[in-house]
Design a protein that fits this description.
Length: 154
């Protein structure tokens, strides 16, 4: 769906995606952030992360990633955030206890939201600033949600 809307999505590892925030634009639209394990990064990958994470806070690139503890040290790929609907969620991520994993750390959630809102602010001032074409994907999903609503209203 992202590629069909002009974006790039090259996640071949089928990483979990954290559905973080319900959009104010539509009840069925969410903002989601892909995540992975920090210990899967090689030295070059870790060096790249360190570069972005150590930029001054006023630099938007400091919001591209975040490292936080989930069931292990995780990296959140915030600059790869996407709008998503239930239709495109193919499963629930489970933790080590085989239960639906929910982030409960309020500090982590707050920092993810802060960085996500900065990314979305850039996107709102310049559509499709990021490789996944956030704006085009969002418009596509909003059209899908409206079409579904109209078909159920009939």
């Amino acid at each position: 769906m992202i590629k069909n809307n002009g974006g790039t999505w090259n996640d071949t590892k089928h990483r979990p995606i954290v559905c973080l925030i319900k959009s104010k634009e539509h009840d069925g639209l969410y903002w989601a952030i892909p995540m992975g394990k920090l210990n899967h990064r090689d030295a070059a990958g870790q060096k790249r992360l360190d570069f972005y994470l150590n930029l001054p806070e006023r630099d938007i690139r400091s919001c591209y990633y975040h490292i936080g503890r989930t069931s292990s040290q995780s990296i959140f790929f915030i600059s790869d955030a996407i709008p998503i609907t239930d239709k495109y969620i193919d499963g629930i991520h489970v933790g080590g206890d085989n239960q639906h994993y929910i982030i409960k750390n309020k500090n982590l959630i707050s920092e993810l939201e802060r960085k996500l809102f900065r990314i979305l602010s850039v996107e709102n001032t310049k559509n499709n600033s990021f490789r996944q074409h956030i704006t085009d994907v969002k418009h596509f999903l909003l059209q899908e949600l409206e079409a579904e609503k109209q078909s159920t209203d009939m």
